[in-house]
């Protein structure tokens, strides 16, 4: 048997790319590839790229510059290094990538990862292979399910794609062009993935999609199921301790999702619900198809059924034509909602999107200043939110050994890291922790329950009784 070939894969951008990277690893395993962290020893390097903002996109080219040196070094040692560009830049730029960076051997768009083995063979035979079509078939039917080896390497929290693509066409966004139209996976396939993950020690599942609550996959009854129903189905599976989903759109929040938050203890009361702006004028120009008032009403629906629910969001500052009054409306919305955290970005014009044609650009200095003000407000809300945990007892899902010897780190329902001194046996369990202090973004505390009642370490007995803080 020939020696295994080494694969190094680097992902940028969203959770979808993280999940896809794993699928690529699993697709290439039967071809004899094993993963390596070390680029210089790789036979195949895949850059799994993001096109969302110019900065993300340009990162790829500086990385390709570095890879050219690594490829030359490998060649000097008589080794061939193949370089592939995957992800949304591959989809958006296709052949242009090879023109700018001739070091690239394979360009593969997100809909074609199941063709990777063939593309590598084509590149070997013909010198290069490029595939960025949206194939008619659903790639999920061809990609292998998560494999034990790659699941175990990644710990107790995992992503599962349930939906891909977007039909919303916000005027600033490349996603509908790079990921294509919305497609949902059938419930049975998703449940099968979740079962495999749980059987291999995973305890927390985050369902992902560019527009995850637009999910409408086929259920076992042949009908189309909304996300809330899918969550209810998965929550009933033994070993699933925590469920999350991301990223949702305010316009697709339906009764099934609100009911799931009311009824499912496993569904974490923490929702990432991007709003982008607090100005109705800007929201209309962004083609968001909701107002700030609509967004507030959606938030209220969640809050009515789960008083302890918290929210995070995404914001864009400096969208073309954004005035100081528009920006003030964003600050007002943030002040009214009160977030546990949020991401904020300066508007970046993206080729091919309608907003890129606007000429009314906000000057860079104004964008910088607005971003700083927004981030200050968000940071102070995040600090208040984290500080409010001190002195309380919270449920923590323990994930891994921390850097400090003897310390174990886990996360609260709100994804706050929590450090305790305890035995590694608690990894994979949800246990109550008394929070004593906050150090930067991390909570420090001690176990509130006797450690003797914890369930076994994740990855062994997946049917073990689970001790929650309830
Ligand atoms: N599907 C998700 C998020 C997609 S991209 C949603 O609908 O919200 C993640 C975030 O990147 C967006 O929420 C937006 O805040 C930001 N973003 C997208 N395009 C951008 C652009 N052209 N410039 C700046 N930020 C952008
Ligand atoms: Fe982009 Fe809008 Fe679709 Fe989100 S909903 S992926 S921001 S087009
Ligand atoms: Fe980036 Fe594509 Fe995700 S553009 S954010 S990697 S869908």
Key words describing this protein structure:
470 residues; alpha/beta; Rossmann fold; pyruvate-formate lyase- activating enzyme; OB fold (Dihydrolipoamide Acetyltransferase, E2P); 6-stranded parallel beta sheet; 5-stranded mixed barrel; 14 helices; 19 strands; disordered C terminus; binds S-adenosyl-L-homocysteine; binds iron/sulfur cluster; binds FE3-S4 cluster
What is the fold named in CATH at topology level of the largest domain?
pyruvate-formate lyase- activating enzyme
Query: What is the count of structural domains?
Result: 3
User: What's the tally of helices?
Assistant: 14
In total, how many beta strands?
Answer: 19
How far apart the termini lie comes to 53 Å
Summing up helix and strand content along with how strands pair, one would put the structural category as: alpha/beta
Please state roughly what percent of the residues sit in beta strands, choosing from under 5%, 5-15%, 15-25%, 25-35%, 35-45% or over 45%: 15-25%
Approximate helicity band: 25-40%
Low-confidence stretches: 451-470
The CATH class of the largest domain is identified as: Alpha Beta
Sheet with most strands: strand arrangement: 2-1-3-4-5-6
- Output mean pLDDT: 92
The hetero compounds bound to this protein are: S-adenosyl-L-homocysteine, iron/sulfur cluster, FE3-S4 cluster
**Any idea what the CATH architecture of the largest domain is?**
Alpha-Beta Horseshoe
> What overall geometry do the principal axes of the alpha carbons give?
globular
Largest beta-sheet details: 6 strands, parallel
Q: Report the radius of gyration as a whole number of Å.
A: 23 Å
Task: Give the CATH superfamily of the largest domain.
Answer: tm_1862 like domain
């Amino acid at each position: 048997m020939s020696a295994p070939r080494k694969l190094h894969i680097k992902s940028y951008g969203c959770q979808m790319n993280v999940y896809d990277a794993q699928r690529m690893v699993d697709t290439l395993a039967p071809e004899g590839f094993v993963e390596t962290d070390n680029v210089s020893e790789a036979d195949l390097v895949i850059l799994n790229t993001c096109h969302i903002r110019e900065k993300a996109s340009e990162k790829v080219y500086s990385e390709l510059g570095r890879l050219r040196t690594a490829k030359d070094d490998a060649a000097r040692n008589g080794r061939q290094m193949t370089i592939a560009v995957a992800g949304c830049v591959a989809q958006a730029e296709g052949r242009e990538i090879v023109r700018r960076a001739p070091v690239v051997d394979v360009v593969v768009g997100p809909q074609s990862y199941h063709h990777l083995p063939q593309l590598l063979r084509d590149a070997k035979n013909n010198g290069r292979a490029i595939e960025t079509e949206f194939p008619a078939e659903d790639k999920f039917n061809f990609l292998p399910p998560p494999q034990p080896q790659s699941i175990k390497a990644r710990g107790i929290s995992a992503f599962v794609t349930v939906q891909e693509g977007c039909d919303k066409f916000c005027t600033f966004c490349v996603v509908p062009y790079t990921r294509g139209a919305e497609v949902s996976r059938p419930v049975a396939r998703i449940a099968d993935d979740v079962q495999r993950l749980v059987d291999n020690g995973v305890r927390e599942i985050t369902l992902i999609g560019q527009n995850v609550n637009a999910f409408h996959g086929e259920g076992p009854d042949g009908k189309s199921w909304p996300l809330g129903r899918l969550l209810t189905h998965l929550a009933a599976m033994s070993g699933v301790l925590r469920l999350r989903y991301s990223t949702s759109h305010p316009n697709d929040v339906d009764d099934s999702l609100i009911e799931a938050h009311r009824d499912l203890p496993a569904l974490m009361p923490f929702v990432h619900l991007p709003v982008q702006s607090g100005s109705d004028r800007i929201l209309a120009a962004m083609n968001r198809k909701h107002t700030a008032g609509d967004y507030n009403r959606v938030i209220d629906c969640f809050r009515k059924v789960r008083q302890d629910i918290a929210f995070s969001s995404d914001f864009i500052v400096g969208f073309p034509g954004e005035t100081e009054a528009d920006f003030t409306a964003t600050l007002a919305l943030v002040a009214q909602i009160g977030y546990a955290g949020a991401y904020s970005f300066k508007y970046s014009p993206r080729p091919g999107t309608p907003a890129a044609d606007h000429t009314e650009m906000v000057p860079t200095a104004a964008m910088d200043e607005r971003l700083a003000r927004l981030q200050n407000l968000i940071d102070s809300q995040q600090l208040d939110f984290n500080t409010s945990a001190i002195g309380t007892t919270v449920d923590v899902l323990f994930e891994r050994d921390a850097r400090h010897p003897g310390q174990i780190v886990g996360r609260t329902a709100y994804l706050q890291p929590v450090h305790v001194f305890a035995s590694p046996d608690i990894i994979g369990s949800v246990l109550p922790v008394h929070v004593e202090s906050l150090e930067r973004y991390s909570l420090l505390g001690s176990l509130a329950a006797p450690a003797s009642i914890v369930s076994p370490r994740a990855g062994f007995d997946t049917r073990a009784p689970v001790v929650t803080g309830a």
